[in-house]
Design brief:
- The structure holds 2 protein chains of 2 kinds.
- By secondary structure, chain A is α/β, with parallel strands linked by helices.
- Helix content of chain A is 32%, strand content 25%.
- In chain A, strands 6-7-8-3-9-10-12-11 form an 8-stranded mixed sheet, sandwiched between helices. Chain A has a 4-stranded antiparallel sheet with strand order 2-1-4-5, covered by helices on one side.
- The radius of gyration of chain A is 20 Å and the shape is globular.
- The two termini of chain A are 29 Å apart.
- The relative contact order of chain B is 0.15.
- In chain B, 77% of the residues lie in helices and 0% in strands.
- Chain B is globular, with a radius of gyration of 24 Å.
- The chains are: A alpha/beta, B mainly alpha.
- The interface between A and B is medium-sized, with 31 and 25 residues.
- Adenosine-5'-diphosphate binds next to β1, β2 and α1 of chain A.
């Protein structure tokens, strides 16, 4: 199997300027996604998953700044592109869908128009045939009665329907990479499965690479080829799903798994890991941001973190891996 | 949408009834005896009593009220004591002057405040943003009659750039033919540029006084609303879809941000209706505000009542219009009613 990376993120660091000082939200984040591959980015809330996605997409808040790194995509570094060039790629080559589909859609614009806007912008359709193309997209995400639904406003649709619209917007121009940021959080369990299957199927059809951001390890294991574990702005472990479940090497990953009763990990279970995320505003953050919560900590842990290859496609950033 | 408007209209009826009662009571409670004023200084007590009978002022208050409402229903607001003319006619001829002033001021204010607010939000922290802050702070702290007096003092008295604050036209010019009642429009329609220019010059200072007053709340609301919308999830979606900055700012952000601005616009408009009285007095502007002030000074009931009722009707109409426009922009309001 020859793997061609669709996206390779290297050494990505992001800071936020806040009232109480500079927060180093991401530090030396690196991972890659191959064409046709689905990679999960997991970690508890606040670990920097969304910020990673926003940085790659170039849609960070004004307060956020990329201080180092590269994000190689289709031969160019997304982080080095001008806003203008990046905007050309967004929605066409790389797309993103968000948590909270109801607020992620323009409340006063018909959903068909919102899909058409993206198509027209990227030359996927002319102004005249955009409405028809939008309806075709609605059909593709299996919205019943698409002609009528195209005329609806988001508030007239259920959360699941809105997420399908989001998917239609994101996939309208057949991107090479889709970042799905907790696309099913807030939806009921049945809808969750339907949405995940839909994304998986559409991705499979077009050989699209997918980054699936979640705090739900069970979902990640079910739908993804590889799992990347994040903690407090660091990537602590990356491994094929099976390998991670069989033998997690980072103490944090192990805790995540241990908190997994059978195949269902819940948000509450994640929260049961002792201690909280460290305060990222502290100037004297230890090299290992998990050390404050770690039972395996030794003196060696005060050295800059290693990147240890512990198996096939299995990397861990820890001095004393399990 | 129609239902929405009808229900709003229904809720407005009690306020109109209230205004009818209050205007009636108020004018009766105001100091001064109109019969005595009307009869003149040298009138004998008998003459005054006669006039009182003729005006119906000798009847009991309930009787007077019934007569008053009866007249109102026939569209009769009574006659002005000082001119003898029907109040309805006088208000109708003076309303365009007030309307032209208010609307012109509002257009100027909106034309400046909205682009300023939008730019301040889009370019947050830059000089445009600071300018916006200065404008909004200054506008709030200056009362409208003070701005009016200050402008007249500087631009008429000191600099002589503006004409004398004496009404709608240079005294040597005759008004344009009455088509819309708005001198600016009528003079253009009749192709009389000299009249147009004079009307514009006369209009400038009072309109700017009122515009400055309206600028602050409009610019502040536009900026705040734009900032809130620009930070919302769906704007992030729009950016993540690569939509052009123009589409993001105007089609996506502005149309959402304009909703609270419409509400503010309604409030500003109703403030302006009140501010008219002051500005028209300062600039001798022959509108209904000045008319009401003069009537009040001479204890002339009917015009004052007519003025207050006109204001109430304008106010209700205004609010209905605002609801209508709001419904046009926001489908949630339109479809959920
Ligand atoms: N606009 C911002 N200003 C300051 N800090 C931010 C901002 N956005 C995110 N952060 C910080 O970045 C960290 C990671 O956030 P996020 O990526 O949203 O976490 P996740 O998506 O993993 O739940 C959090 O600690 C959060 O406080
Ligand atoms: S580096 Fe040390 S402190 Fe950090 S997770 Fe590994 S063992 Fe624990
Ligand atoms: Mg997140």
């Amino acid at each position: 199997m020859t793997a061609i990376p669709a996206l390779a993120v290297e050494d990505l660091s992001v800071e936020f300027r806040t009232r109480s000082g500079v927060v180093k939200v991401l530090e030396h984040v690196g991972f890659s996604v191959d064409k046709g591959e689905t990679v999960a980015l997991v970690g508890e809330s606040g670990s920097g998953k969304s910020v990673t996605a926003f940085a790659v997409m170039g849609i960070l808040d004004a307060a956020g700044k990329v201080t180092s790194g590269r994000a190689m995509f289709g031969g160019s570094d997304l982080l080095a592109l001008s806003e203008r060039d990046l905007a050309e790629q967004r929605g066409r080559e790389l797309s993103m869908i968000f948590q909270n589909p109801r607020t992620a859609l323009n409340p006063i614009r018909r959903v068909g128009r919102q899909i058409a806007d993206v198509l027209v912008r990227h030359g996927g359709a002319t102004r005249n045939d955009a409405p028809q193309a939008a309806i075709a997209m609605l059909k593709k995400v299996r919205i019943p009665d698409p002609e009528r639904r195209a005329e609806a406003y988001p508030f007239e649709l259920s959360g699941g329907m809105c997420q399908r619209i989001m998917i239609a917007i994101a996939l309208a121009c057949r991107p090479a990479l889709l970042i799905a940021d907790e696309p099913t959080t807030g939806l009921d369990v049945t809808t969750q499965a339907v949405i995940m299957d839909l994304i998986g199927e559409l991705a499979g059809e077009s050989g699209m690479a997918t980054i699936f951001i979640t705090h739900d390890l069970a979902l990640a294991a079910e739908y993804c080829d590889r799992i990347v574990v994040m903690h407090a702005g660091h990537i602590v472990e990356a491994a094929p799903g099976r390998a991670l479940f069989d033998h997690a090497r980072h103490p944090y990953s192990a805790k995540l798994l241990a908190a997994t009763p059978g195949e269902t990990v819940s948000l509450e279970a994640l929260a049961s890991i002792p201690g909280g995320l460290p305060d990222l505003r502290r100037p004297d953050l230890p090299p290992c941001r998990y050390s404050g919560r770690c039972e395996r900590r030794t003196e060696a842990c005060d050295q800059p973190l290693p990147q240890r290859i512990v198996g096939d496609h299995h990397v861990v950033a820890c001095w004393n891996p399990l | 949408m129609l239902n929405l408007l009808l229900s709003r209209l229904a809720t407005a009826i009690p306020s109109i009834v209230g205004v009818v009662v209050v205007t009636f009571m108020l004018t009766r409670l105001l100091p001064g005896d109109p019969a005595a004023y009307f009869a003149g200084l040298a009138a004998s007590p008998q003459a005054i009593a006669e006039i009182r009978t003729k005006l119906g002022l000798d009847k009991s208050l309930p009787e007077q009220f019934v007569a008053y409402v009866g007249d109102l229903l026939q569209g009769n607001l009574g006659n002005s004591l000082s001119t003898g003319q029907p109040v309805v006619t006088e208000i109708a001829t003076r309303l365009p002057a007030s309307a032209e002033l208010t609307l012109f001021a509002l257009i100027v204010a909106v034309g400046i405040a909205i682009p300023l607010g939008v730019l301040a939000a889009v370019k947050q922290g830059t000089w445009v943003d600071h300018l916006c802050r200065i404008v909004t702070t200054a506008g709030v702290s200056l009362p409208v009659f003070f701005t009016g007096l200050l402008l007249a003092y500087v631009f008429y008295y000191l600099l002589q750039w503006a004409p004398a604050p004496t009404g709608r036209l240079d005294i040597f010019l005759s008004p344009p033919p009455d088509i819309t009642g708005f001198y600016l429009i009528d003079s253009l329609l009749s192709g009389n540029l000299e009249t147009f220019w004079s009307a514009l010059r006369q209009l400038a200072l009072p309109a700017i006084s009122m515009a400055i007053f309206s600028l602050a709340p409009l610019a502040r609301m536009t900026r705040g609303s734009m900032l809130a919308v620009l930070g919302s999830d769906f704007i992030r979606t729009a950016r993540a879809s690569g939509l052009s900055p123009r589409t993001v700012v105007f089609t996506y952000a502005f149309r959402n941000a304009v909703l609270p601005v419409i509400t503010t616009l309604g409030m500003v408009f109703s403030f302006l209706l009140g501010a008219n009285v002051l500005v028209e007095t300062v600039f001798a502007w022959p509108g209904i505000g000045l008319y009401a002030v003069n009537a009040l000074i001479t204890s002339d009931y009917a015009p004052v009542q007519g003025f207050v009722l006109t204001m109430a009707v304008l106010y209700v109409t205004l609010n209905l219009t605002i609801d209508f426009v709001y419904g046009l922009v926001d489908p949630r309001v339109r479809l959920e009613s």
